[in-house]
Amino acid sequence: MDKIRYKMKLAYDGTNFSGFQVQPNKRTVQGEIEKALSKMSKEEFIRIKGAGRTDAGVHARGQIIHFDYPRYIPEDGMLRALNALGPEDIVFLESDIVDHTFHSQYLAKGKMYHYRVDNHSLKDPFTRFYAHHHPFDIDLKRTQKALAFLEGTHDFTSFASAHSDKEDKTRTIYEASVAIDEKTEEWIFTFRGNGFLYNMIRIIMGTILQVADGRRPVEDIKKILEAKDRTTAGPTVEAKGLCMMEVYYDEDAFK
Amino acid sequence: MDKIRYKMKLAYDGTNFSGFQVQPNKRTVQGEIEKALSKMSKEEFIRIKGAGRTDAGVHARGQIIHFDYPRYIPEDGMLRALNALGPEDIVFLESDIVDHTFHSQYLAKGKMYHYRVDNHSLKDPFTRFYAHHHPFDIDLKRTQKALAFLEGTHDFTSFASAHSDKEDKTRTIYEASVAIDEKTEEWIFTFRGNGFLYNMIRIIMGTILQVADGRRPVEDIKKILEAKDRTTAGPTVEAKGLCMMEVYYDEDAFK
Fold first, then answer.
1. Residue A197 contacts residue A159 (beta carbons within 8 Å)
2. Quick one: CATH architecture of A4-98?
3. Which chain B residues are closer than 8 Å to A80 by Cβ?
4. Could you give the residue range(s) of every CATH 3.30.70.660 domain in chain B?
5. pLDDT tens readout for residues B70-105
6. In B, which residues are within 8 Å of A123 by CB distance?
7. What's the CATH class of domain A110-248?
8. Of B76, B169, B176, B247, which sits most exposed with the smallest number of CB within 10 A?
9. pLDDT, tens digit, for every residue of A50-89?
């Protein structure tokens, strides 16, 4: 019998995971999902594939995975089963049976991430795993001007980890913006683009915060892009502020 | 030299504490604060007193404590020192040097608590320690009518734990209300009163939710109050939805 391909959307609290990708003797998102699936399907191991590999501590509200299941289960039933068998820090939000041509990673046309910054002088015990604490005066106008330099198609070599194995470091960022949450006063940064290099958003954030609090001139962002040299950019900030919000499969939906 | 009395406001994530009150071999809020104070003052053990004892899993954004410190430290210095020496899940928000007549517990005239209910059908991994998940249809009008019965001065025997050691179970509730958060769609219940019996809000919530989702008629709340019998009320719901928001020392400020 033909296997059935499932596409699922999930949220997870990345705090207690050593990232998405399976690793020996580590608790990972992929590992926990494959464990839950193997409880369901006694016959065989089922490999899952994610749209993107999030690092240790990085969260998700819209990660997409796909896998081939040996027999038919209604979409709702798959959702319920995985929510029942999976751990508490992973929640499956949507389940769809898709064509065998669907691939969560290769067909992804773009992604949207949030990075949360807590700018209060004191820490907040409730966001200690979910926001980066930056208790220095930051300027909204400067921050917005700096972000604007990032929008468009650029070679992001300067903002990629030296460990990035991608040859072509050209990516298009459709949106690099910030909004201050009215209630929590958190600074929520949004990055929407056709792809992001390893650590790219965390290095961008480390650099943007240096501009935001006045340690660097706004124009540095332009110069850093042109330098194509990782050492010209700022530090890689904490993983915990980062959350994968959405994966886009429709070319035109997110531009 | 005279000791200096400090009044401090603090927030804590109750998840990893066995409640506020010190207990042998348990990690408690009081225990951790006294440990931090003893790091500061090598000479002597310093006992702290809290406005209210929160149970295991209960959170706080406005708990008040007081203690006598053997020597003068500026208010700001005390705040910085305790934030530096205390654990990550406790944050000290305000520090005041007060008169020796001040007492965090005995002088408290009232308190305000929130109880958070997540009414979505699916759980949210990010609020799993902070909101009670109640994935059943609940009706706002019914809930508000039920809450209205609780406002005023009543004997709350029916809504007190059988372990409550208070003789007089009459309390005044100035506000029992609910608001739906626009962004998260969480139901945030507010209880403001001159005092709350042991488990009182959690038993009220267990009963209110039975009214809210139609398992009980609205008028039951009135009947349960009149019965003065714990067995007539609903179950004690989870601690994790509860958060101590504010302690009032000014008689007129909160009515």
1. yes
2. 2-Layer Sandwich (3.30)
3. none
4. 110-248
5. 999 999 999 999 999 999 999 999 999 999 999 999
6. 83, 88, 91
7. alpha beta
8. B76
9. 999 999 999 999 999 999 999 999 999 999 999 999 999 9
